[in-house]
Amino acid sequence: MATSVKPHSEAAHLPHSPEKETPFDQFNYPIPKEFPSEGMSARAAHAIVQSECWTDANPMLNLSSFVTTFTEPEAREIFASGSFRNFADPDMYPHTKDTEFVCVRWLHSLWNGPKDAEPYGAATIGSSEACMLGGLAHKWNWREARQKAGKDASRPNMVTGGNVQIVWKKFLRYFDVEPRIVPLKPGNYRLTAEYLDKYVDENTICVVAIAGQTFTGEDDDIQEIHDWLDAYEKKTGVSIPMHIDGASGGFVNPFLDPDYKWDFRLPRVQSINASGHKYGLVPPGLGWIIFRDRKVFNENLVFYVNYLGGEAPTATLNFSKSSATILVQYYAFLRLGREGYTRIMRHALEHAQYLRDRLTKNGKFQIMNKTQRIPVVALTLDKSVTRYNEFDISNKVRERGWILAAYSMPPDAQEINSLRIVVRPHLNRTVVEILADDIERACEFLEMHGGNATPPKLHDSHKTSVAKC
Ligand SMILES: *Cc1c(COP(=O)(O)O)cnc(C)c1O
Question: I need a labelling partner for 229 at 20 to 30 A (CA). Which of 212, 361, 387, 459 fits?
């Protein structure tokens, strides 16, 4: 039984004292099967941990993910210094806590929140926690209004499109809200107002529309949905709020298309989430939920605690956490400003457009995103390509280090496969050209030799594909 580092045969060659360790001994410590009974030198532990990750993907080439993989040294320094300050302790770290509110206020104004409103929101661990908080606020508000009116409040539902990210399905299941998911169809991968009349009713807590969806990068038809809900209210007297899932679009639309109304300029938009760690340019672990006004966040969701000293309100799903990502977001806003984010996003979008043009030029690929807002290229192979599929291409370019997501679309567009490239700002033109060359070469190879990949089987309980995010 390997309960310590000793019994392994190689352990015999290891020095008896850490001081005698050679530079290569550090790689040779065997890893115990059970909880280690003794420790080892810091160098050896460090080497083991690092070596475990050697064959993992290179995050810089992982273009299946939206998550930031580059920050400046100054941001890293802030990240390191912030990581030991518990963000749940505003009494001890009041000025760290203040940076969250500054960011909330800035995002509220970036997303055109009404000037006379009281900005309210929170830093979260990613958009997932932010979406849960948005959904909960709408559920609580809906229930309160129903109870006040003496109506049944036992069957809340939420309406959204089949293109939603998995977090909304989690929210619906974890918090017992009936899913009303408008299916996609081949050729249309976004939520529009077309079928809303079959899904929306007086028990709808909110309609969730996406700015920068996971599958094709497109926006739902936010304005059309908004106007449809206005007309619905006129007809029925039932007023339904909208939540915008701006995980990606929240940090792109304001910079690349400031006149486009996807945000609080639409009165029905009561809450917006975004991922600080996607196009917000912060390392993984940060999201934002911003409410149109303080009163949208139901007071019954707020708890007051006094056990860290002082009395502090808390209304997030997590409690203790590092302050690192929030401070880096504050840094990024100051460092870049609108001008900096605009320039960065414009470059990324130009690179996406370059890839899109290059890869569709010879007729092998069709583009899936009709509009190009966030820098994502979603491709599907043309029907004339029969010897290989999107999964084959993803596998083939992996030999060159690239990670590109290949997946089948959610219901009812499952027969369509997609190859998706998330163009993040750290990619320069040279790298993007190399990627295009590598994809073209992979296709030539596969045309000659044929592919054999089959789309992975989907888990029954979900019956929907989950694009990585
Ligand atoms: C990424 C993503 C999420 C989930 O966000 P995390 O920040 O990964 O928790 C939700 N919705 C959309 C549209 C996304 O792209």
Answer: 212
pTM beyond cutoff 0.85: yes
| Ligand 1, atom nearest to 214 Cα | 15
**Structural domains in the chain plus CATH codes:** 76-332 (3.40.640.10), 347-449 (3.90.1150.160)
Shortest-distance atom of ligand 1 to CA 246: 13
Q: Which two tokens stand for residue 102?
A: 């500054």
Q: How confident is the model at residue 13 (pLDDT cuts 50, 70, 90)?
A: confident
d(CA 14, CA 324): 38
How far apart are alpha carbons 226 and 206 in whole angstroms? Answer: 11
Q: What does the alpha-carbon distance between residue 208 and residue 269 come to, in Å, rounded to a whole number?
A: 10
Question: Can the peptide bond before residue 437 be classed as cis, meaning omega within 30 degrees of 0?
Answer: no
Rounded mean pLDDT, 174-181: 98
Q: Is 210 in the pocket of ligand 1 (CB under 6 A)?
A: yes
CB 340 within 8 A of CB 331: no
Per-residue model confidence (pLDDT) at position 450: 96
Q: Nearest C-alpha to atom 5 of ligand 1 is from which residue?
A: 127
What DSSP string describes 19-39? Answer: GG--TTGGG-PPPPSSS-SS-
Mutate to test the pocket of ligand 1, among 132, 219, 245 (most ligand atoms within 8 A of CB): 245
- For 67-115, the pLDDT digits (tens) are 999 999 999 999 999 999 999 999 899 999 999 999 999 999 999 999 9
**Each residue's pLDDT tens digit, 351-403:** 999 999 999 998 999 999 988 999 999 999 999 999 999 999 999 999 999 99
pLDDT at site 26: 78
Distances (CA, A) of 12 to 8, 25, 46, 364, 368: 8, 11, 21, 59, 59
Q: Is the CB of 126 under 6 A from ligand 1?
A: yes
In testing the pocket of ligand 1, which one of 124, 128, 168 has its CB within 8 Å of the most ligand atoms?
Answer: 128
